[in-house]
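User: Working on a comparison across species. This one is Vitamin K-dependent gamma-carboxylase from Posidoniimonas corsicana. Can you predict its structure so I can line it up against the others?
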Amino acid sequence: MDTQPPPIDDAQATLRRQRLVWLWALATPLLIGATWPLWCGRTALPSIPALSLLTPAPMFAEYVLLGAVAWGTLCVVRGKQAAGLAYGCVGLAGLMLFDQLRWQPWAYHLLVMGSVLLLSPPWLAVALLRVLAVSVYLYSAIAKLDFAFASTLGRQMLEAAAGLVGLEIAGWPRWLLLSLALAMPVAEAVAGLLLAWRRTRTAGLLLAIFMHLSAFVALGPLGLNHRPGVLLWNLVFPAHLWLLFGPIKSAAGESLPAEPSTAVAPRWSAKVAIAIVGFAVMGPLTRPLGVWDRWPSWGLYAPGGERTEVLVRASVLERLPDTLRADEVDESSGDAGWRRLRLDEWSLDQSLAPLYPQRRTTLAIVRELDRAALLGGALRVELLSAADRFSGERSSESLHGIAEVEEYARRYWLNTRTRTLPSPARR
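Assistant: Here's the predicted structure for Vitamin K-dependent gamma-carboxylase from Posidoniimonas corsicana:
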């Protein structure tokens, strides 16, 4: 039988894999619990299946899938790791197919991680997850290396962190604030590169953990006060990094060698795992072509992507859900009588999770709002392009009325229709 050298020692890889499975079984229910309304269907937000054939499916099917995830985590606790991962990954994948709003970065990563742990021998699982982790940092850094991040969220995170130590940075020179904000994605890229090389992994690991803990503080209750799901993920991800790259000891407390040994060539299931990680790592390269979405491309905390703003006439606001609020717009710009719907805030309030940032999901919500409220010509959708990396400027296009929205939505190959808006959301 053909052999090839695995990247790490088999015994060490087995320990790493075992502990990664435990982390998966702990993190999955915790993060689903932190965003529970998104997964149990008890939210005013309509669900958007990935495929149109799933739109008439009953809610009972999703409860079965939730049960599969719960049973999977229980199986891991009982020591049946393979069965637990199988149940959990099938359940999580099914739940994500039933609603694109569930394609949160952490859910996507846990699905890929669980699949790799299930399908691969330990040494290959560790190697593949290391490659994936490095790609996350590099893609995330590239997505934030722009004027939009430096002048908005990057500056907000800086101000939050500075405020915690009593610094007032509002009066600092603009060039300095932009530079400090851009230092964050630069550090992210450096961490990814350091993790890619054996001799520099310890430095990369420490830098990455420091960045996540800093983000946890800046985004936490003392800073920008983001939702629990975001904060939990900034603890889970560095924990998984430690299990992948950090020192590992046996149950007896002895350090294990890290010298390579030999192992059999990958089985068919391992080849599937390689393909999964290959798609996850290479797929983001197609994002500029509109093939891969922003979050699966690890465009995290990156405000420079495309934006979709929804405006309605003030006269139809009473037809919309009570929980959906709207802002007045600047009437000097010719928008008198229009109100901008706060869909991002609606998602955070209703599902405890940020709104999936793709245009097609926003258009799907617009189509459902029109179906429930008969907005007709009292609707306008502003399509803003991705921001220019150096100036932050965007081009825009307007869709007037539901007919133009319907026509535009036909260009997507994924579904842009929702299941029925829950009755409690209506007036």
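For your comparison, note: Residues 307-425 form one domain.

User: Helpful, thanks.
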